[in-house]
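G., the chain you wanted modeled:
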Amino acid sequence: MQLKDKVAIITGGGRGIGRAIATAYAAEGAAVVIAARSTAQLDEVATTIAAQGGESLAVPTDLRVRAEVAHLVQKTVAQFGKVDILVNNAGINPRGMFLESTDEQWEQAWQVNVMGVVHCCRAVLPIMKQQGSGNIINVGSGMGQVGHANLSIYCASKAALHGLTQAIAEEVWRDGIIANVLIPGPVKTELSKAAWENAETFRAQSDPWKEPAQVVASALFLAAQPPASGMTGQILSIMRRNSP
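Predicted structure as C-alpha cells:
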C-alpha cells in the first residue's frame, strides 16, 4: 500500500475528483479526512470507504471560514494524531463575460479557490513543521496558465493558486514539506457540467474529457512522494496541451 499509515485531508471530498481521490487514498492505506459543505455527500463517501475496509472521518466545512478550517484540522489531529497530506481540491467556476461579471462573483470565487487554500495551508503547516514532514497537493487548472474567454474569474483564481503553491514550496522545503500543483485537465464533474454537456463544445474538443477516476493515478503519485525526493514547487499536468 502506497499510503499505509498516512493521514490525508481532502477538501471538496464529497463528489467528483475529491471523492475519487479520497476513496483511492483510503484503498492505499491512508486514513482519509474528507471536507465539504454537504453533509449528505460526505456521509455517502465515508460509507463507501468503510464498505471497502478503509478509515475515514467526515467533517462538514465551509472553507471560506477560517474558524471552520481550524476545526477541521483540530478534529483530524485529535483523531489521528497528525496530518501527512493535504489535498486542496475544492473550487467553484463561475462563467460569463468579464464585463458582465459582478463583484460578488469575484469575491465568492476568490474566497473558495484562493482563500480556502490559504486557510487550509495556514492550519496544517505548523503541524507539518513540528512533524518535520508534509505533502501539500493543490488542484490547479490549465486555465491558470492560459486565459480563456468567459472564464476570467476562474482563470485569475487558478493562476493565483499556482503562484501561491510555488511560493509556499520555496518557504517550507527546509522543514521537510513539499507542495505541488496537480492540473487534471478537463474532467466530467459538476463544476464543468455546463461545458461537457454541451454537444458542440464536446465535439470541438475531440472528446478530451476524463472521468474523475482517471485523475487518481497522478494524485497517488504526488501523495506518495517523500519530502526527501526534492519534488516541490512543480506543476504536474495530465491535460492535453490544447485543452481548456
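DSSP finds eight helices and seven strands in the chain.

Shout if anything looks off.
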